[in-house]
Design a protein that fits this description.
Growth Hormone, Chain: A; mainly alpha; about 375 residues
Length: about 375
């Protein structure tokens, strides 16, 4: 069973490539002499797919199977990676490539997360999904290092797509040979549809957990977006050097936290770890308001550790509570990633009044997430006592 997880871990590594889009903006702007507004379409086209396609892809996975969707959309990601390799004569070609990659990675997110449950040993879903997020972060962090290396070697920035394409092709082959017994329909469960997916939001527990994903992603993106500016304004750190290191501290702590989380979950229940992580997040963000530089920096590092495992914990806890609706729930939760476009904008509005005030948004979000964690722990405790 443990060898069956390897192709799925590779899928998560591919998901990390989606975060490389931001790294390309500067190169694309120079290549095509674009205005900032036009260049901004690059991440927009990559992000758009989460809102448009997540729920339909969950329905497709329910009807055709998770492996079918993985193979189909790994192929689409591969096509997207190869488009710029063939030609970057026009900016539209790059946009098309990013759109293909964005759509493909959305499908991988929708199917890869529940597929990890299918290939994991009993009781190890949360642990493996947490480690998969670490693998994803490795893929995310690779791009900022690989792209300058490609350029330094004189290969042309577009050749990073070729390097990614080779990894995608290897992953596609490994998934093709993956043999899994996918969950069959549970007795009494209806065939998934877009309507039945959204109907799940009528369940208060599902709604609050999906909202938790929406808010969490927004808090992570918002924090990452405003950390450097916060350090610059609050302590006068140089925006291009010292302040930017705050982002590096946060991202490094995220990666370390995901690795540690996969270890901790070997002996601590997902619900208890969820509560610990969420409360730690409240403490970490509260540290941002302290007028002492070392405390704020410690808060940034602590925030990375506490934020690291919130997504896989909410995801796995909700899926384990409704396993017969896995694909539909996955579609809803991946759709909720669009929170990453909303919460930073809200923080920006508050920052017009006071940048420090904007951090009330992620603080309030983690108070809410702590409530979700308390409730999840209470539910599992009640089930254990009644068993």
């Amino acid at each position: 069973m443990k060898f069956k997880t390897i192709p799925v871990f590779l899928v998560f590594f591919i998901m990390g490539f989606g975060d490389a889009v931001g790294t390309l903006v500067g190169f694309v702007t120079k290549e095509f002499s674009l205005s900032p507004a036009v260049a901004g379409l690059l991440p927009f086209f990559g992000f758009l797919a989460f809102g448009l396609f997540s729920v339909p892809f969950g329905v497709l996975a329910d009807k055709k199977g998770q492996k079918f969707v993985l193979v189909l959309f790994l192929a689409l990601v591969l096509i997207g990676e190869l488009v710029p390799v063939v030609s970057i004569a026009r900016y539209e070609y790059v946009l098309l490539a990013i759109f293909f990659i964005g759509v493909g990675i959305t499908a991988l997110q929708v199917v890869g997360n529940p597929m990890m449950r299918t290939v994991s040993p009993e009781g190890k879903f949360s642990r493996n999904l947490t480690f998969a997020q670490f693998v994803k972060s490795v893929g995310s962090n690779a791009a900022p290092y690989i792209l300058p290396l490609v350029v330094a070697l004189g290969l042309g920035w577009q050749n990073i797509f070729l390097m990614f394409a080779l990894v995608v092709a290897a992953t596609l082959v490994s998934v093709l040979f993956l043999k899994v017994e996918e969950p069959t329909d549970h007795a009494g469960s209806q065939r998934a549809s877009i309507g039945s997916s959204f109907a799940l939001l009528k369940d208060p527990y599902v709604l609050t957990m999906v909202l938790g994903i929406f808010l969490y992603v927004g808090a992570e993106v918002g924090l990452n977006s405003w950390i450097a500016q916060h350090l610059h304004i609050k302590f006068g750190l140089d925006l291009q050097r010292e302040a930017t290191l705050g982002i590096a501290v946060f991202m490094t702590s995220l990666a370390i936290g995901r690795l540690l989380g996969s270890i901790v979950l070997n002996f601590l229940s997902p619900q208890k770890f969820f509560l610990t992580s969420s409360l730690l997040g409240v403490v970490a963000i509260a540290g941002f308001f302290v007028p002492v530089q070392i405390v704020v920096l410690a808060g940034i590092a602590l925030a990375g550790l506490s934020f690291a495992n919130i997504f896989p914990l909410i995801f796995s806890i909700l899926i384990d509570s409704r396993p017969e609706r896995t694909n539909e729930l996955s579609g809803l939760m991946v759709m909720a990633i669009v929170g990453g476009a909303i919460m930073p904008a809200l923080m920006g509005v508050l920052a017009n009044q006071s940048l420090e005030l904007s951090f009330v948004v992620p603080l309030a979000i983690f108070v809410y997430i702590s409530y979700l964690a308390f409730r999840a722990l209470k539910q599992v405790t009640a089930r254990t006592q009644s068993a």
